[in-house]
């Protein structure tokens, strides 16, 4: 292997090292709310009559095959009305420092922010969030244009438990309680669900709950150590 020439000799190395150490001491811009997000979160999509995976998946910018590993389906053409489909997506940082993801949706005739949020996206977003994320006034949404669908997400909380790093975003439906949601997602503790969702009234029939869930291998994913990346970078520079 050819060793790359060090452009500025040892001085360059020392400068890089000092810069890296300095950077590691600075707080990241949005430390409190959003550091980097996580590569995987799931959206819980409530299945209505006539839904098929191949029409739901494109609402989230993916193909039906991407959805299959996260759901136990006998056939993608047949999903039970009233069941829920888990849709994988990347949970990133919004401009305001909160966690979220923006999907693109092409408007159709008759669309309003309310029906896009409630019917097309099954309450994974809200009409208010759509009004904030799009420049079109609510009464004048053109047909056939892309609009931003903002969905909130969550990657876990060290202060609650480091055993859980994969969450499903679960819009609460009328009749749900913390216990019915826990049972529906196969999660044993409704106490932990209350801890993860402090501001939510579980019996109000609305709101989005963050629920720890298993990956396609059937395991809970532990929370990733957030500081390991920067530590590795410094070591890399030091030893190179
Ligand atoms: C979405 O929320 C509205 C208002 O709370 C509710 O009436 C509707 O049934 C919900 N839709 C779904 C698919 O859960
Ligand atoms: C969607 O969001 C992007 C980035 O914030 C913005 O530039 C664009 O205008 C938004 N789209 C609409 C329809 O408002
Ligand atoms: C939760 O919502 C239900 C139904 O809307 C309401 O009756 C109840 O008072 C609410 N509880 C709290 C603590 O706000």
TrEMBL record:
Subcellular compartments: Cell membrane
GO biological process terms on file: innate immune response
Primary location: membrane
Name of the molecule in the record: LysM domain-containing protein
CDD domains: LysM
Keyword Transmembrane among record annotations: yes
Recorded coiled-coil stretches: none
GO molecular function: transmembrane receptor protein kinase activity
Any one annotated GO CC term: plasma membrane
All residue ranges annotated as the LysM domain in the record: 43-87
Superkingdom of source: Eukaryota
Pfam families, sorted: LysM, LysM2_CERK1_LYK3_4_5, LysM_RLK
Natural source organism: Colocasia esculenta (Wild taro)
InterPro entries linked: CERK1/LYK3-like, LysM, LysM2_CERK1_LYK3_4_5, LysM_dom_sf, LysM_RLK3/10
Signal peptide: 1-32
Membrane topology: Single-pass membrane protein
Keywords: Cell membrane, Disulfide bond, Membrane, Signal, Transmembrane, Transmembrane helix
